[in-house]
Amino acid sequence: MLKSFVKFSLVGASGVVVNMAVYTLAMYAGLHYLAAAIIAFCFAVTNNFYWNLIWTFRGQGNKSTRDKYCRFVLVSVLNLVVNLLILKTLVESFSLDKALAQLVAIGLVSLLNFVMNRRFTFND
């Protein structure tokens, strides 16, 4: 399980890079920070699914790739809701910088995301 978590974390790190790049560009384009976070999520979730499918959880689970993707997106959306609540709280209640708040929120939901995907998406 530790090996899978390390791989999941490395994939997640690539997702953070994708997320933050899209988030920053969307903010630069004038979008509200919550809208920017949702758009960034859409790009990052696809990146993360692909790499988790072919590397982290390769060969695990008998579900079709389509079923795994749907489950992965569902788990990711649930985690996005938690992420947005944390992001909004950090920005509006604690006046944290929006980019830093996004990084903190991503970090806080990472373990929950791993556990849910390991059990629900890539498990039989």
Automatic annotation (TrEMBL):
It is a multi-pass membrane protein. Its main location: membrane. InterPro entries: GtrA_CellWall_Glycosyl, GtrA_DPMS_TM. Belongs to the GtrA family. This is GtrA family protein. The lineage of its organism: Bacteria, Bacillati, Bacillota, Negativicutes, Acetonemataceae. One of its GO terms (biological process) is polysaccharide biosynthetic process. The chain crosses the membrane at residues 7-28, 34-57, 69-87, 99-116.
